[in-house]
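Recap for those who missed Tuesday's class. We walked through two folding examples back to back. For each one, the amino acid string is listed first and its predicted structure tokens come directly after. Nothing is annotated here on purpose, so try labeling regions yourself before you check the end of the notes.
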Amino acid sequence: MEAASADRRPCLGVTDEDARRAQVAGLVAELVRVVQQVGQDAPPAQHEVIRHVAVVHALDLRAFGAPVDRVWIAQRTSASPAMWVTMQAGERTWSAWIPQSAAWVAQPLVVELLVRLHGDELEIDASLAGEHPILPHSTFVHPDGWWPAFKARELDGSTLGGVYRDLLYPAVAEIVGRRPGHVLDLGGGDGELAAALLGAGAATNVTVVDRNQALLAAARGRLTEGATVVDADLAAKGWPASLEGPFDAIVAVGLFESNVLPTAVARHVLEAARLRLAPGGALVITGTGAALVRRAQLEALALDVTNATLPAGEVRGATYPLYVARSASRT
């Protein structure tokens, strides 16, 4: 009981559920209005590819009292905000193309909506993406690398990197630091989170796993004692074999998000990570976008979920997903 209560400490400002439902319904109503105003009948020929290379957010909104029952939003990447929106209300279904010139109106609504749903009612459908979805780590989308470009994005006077450093990393360190030990950082990239955990005394040592060579080089330059940097592709089934476990905590910040991993890969990574978690260990998952992880998935892996939301404080007034899931202690 004490552990469960303690895990909730960073989340004292969790949004009231009735308020969250009202926020979702309001955002959907505004999105419907925007789509009706700026939507076009079909994408131009050069954008027809979005039907085949896309991540589709499939939103079931029936429990929210929204003006529509379901919404499907197809985008190539978050860096290319043009979108194909399909809405369903009762028996009626209609679609509209939102060109990039008008997407600046719709995109903030989509982001806010996905943040508030944070995986509870959200299912990511990557079936349209085929074998080679264009994901944010693609050098085609971000020639200088996805993670640095992502962290440098402006967000109401701050940057997303600032959100990670000022909000997400401290929350993760506060949870993990109650039981400092060996921590596995999945998709740890440039090692900034690992450095924060070690610097705060929240971990005795950290193993950082990523596949991006530029970020791994940055991690090796940043981290010295107490850290191990591992080059491994999380999409490959054999990656856990290269790690020495079990781990007292496993963290994933910004990994289990809609434009980072295909859904099937995310589920495989989650299951593989669970097998590396020590008895009583904590699995901590957070980020700034729509989570691919659901509470039911964690509970199906015999994990006790004690947290699901993290208040963002002054940052956009948003509520970010934060999952704290613990394995049963050894008896």
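Example two. Treat it independently of the first, because the proteins are unrelated.
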Amino acid sequence: MRLLYITNGFPFPLTSGYLRHYFLLRELGTRHEVTLLSLAGPGFEPGDTAALEPFTVAIETFGGGRRLSLGGKVRRRVRTLAPGSADGPVAAMRDAAGALVRDGAVDAAVFSGKATYPVLAGLGDLPVVVDLCDATSSRLRGGIRHEEPRRIPAVLLEYASVRQVERRLLLRGDQLLFASARDRDALLDGPHPRAVVVPNGVDLDAWSRTTPQLGRDEVVFTGKMSFPPNEHAALHLAKHVMPLVRQAVPGAHLSIVGRDPTARLLRVADAPGVTVTGLVPDVRPYLERASVFAAPLHFGAGIQNKVLEAMAMEVPVVASTVAAAGLRAGDRSEPPVTVADDPAATAAAVVAHLRAAAGGAAPDRAGRRYVEEHFVWRGSAALVEQALGAAVGATDRSWER
């Protein structure tokens, strides 16, 4: 099949938020002719395309502008909603996609991104699989109560604009992809004949333990720390959980590992037993040294890649209900993690794992097995292929009317 793959951020390097598309492209490109059209964000380097050239027949990037503030994102989103509107790079992408469709060069498209919504206008009646991935509006709604008052109006406006784009994407997609059942249910209120849960996978060769023992007295949390759910979770850990942990285990230490820590987060780096690393060349050594991975997210959406990676590295996990919900494979599976929500319960669970590690507990093979069984990229790509087949084979589009 000749596929057009559209993303709103270039899917490399893998420190970006687009690793889902990198691995799906890598799998699909071995069996299909894939043309990639991608918006290029502020961190894009022309050499990044080399990583995807073996899996594509053509790559075209658009833009490469500055990083937008929250206000800038909202203004762009609102402009996106206006009929026929698109800014320069998005308009150029729409025209390039339209030319491919008119030339009969593609059979179907995989489409992702909210900022790229106007590009759909160039696809005509081409069969389209829309990858919504996570329920962004659900994450924004859940995070409002944790926002600074001065930011709430902008977040509310972003929520409203995102929700409108999501509704339009739901209508246009011949097939709809979601990273988890939670995200599907947030936007569709349950299973739907056009909806497919396609979880993220884990590169099991890369995320593989090399040491036979857990670390001692070490709590780890990883992620992009400017991302609001991660920032809030890290602050919660440092301010409310670790003081309780250190009452029971005085030598306990928390490593907050990940790029772009906010000013608020950097201020907690002076707290006893807390280190904020910022960007590191490799997260895996921190997981090798961990006794327990803590993920006390209070709001969020999508699948929790950072937790899956910790599980693949056989690190025991303490997760909030919100984080654990993003680890379910399909509608029924329960991840092998300890679930705790309030500070006292989270601290007690962390202390239990710290003491177990100090007593010589083995790494958590159950977590690794769970990832091996449910979160493998080859299986996820197979689900995308099934969705593409259904989209191409669908002749009844009466649901649009």
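Answers for example two:
The chain has two domains: 2-201+376-400, 218-374.
Residues 395-401 have pLDDT under 50 and may be disordered.
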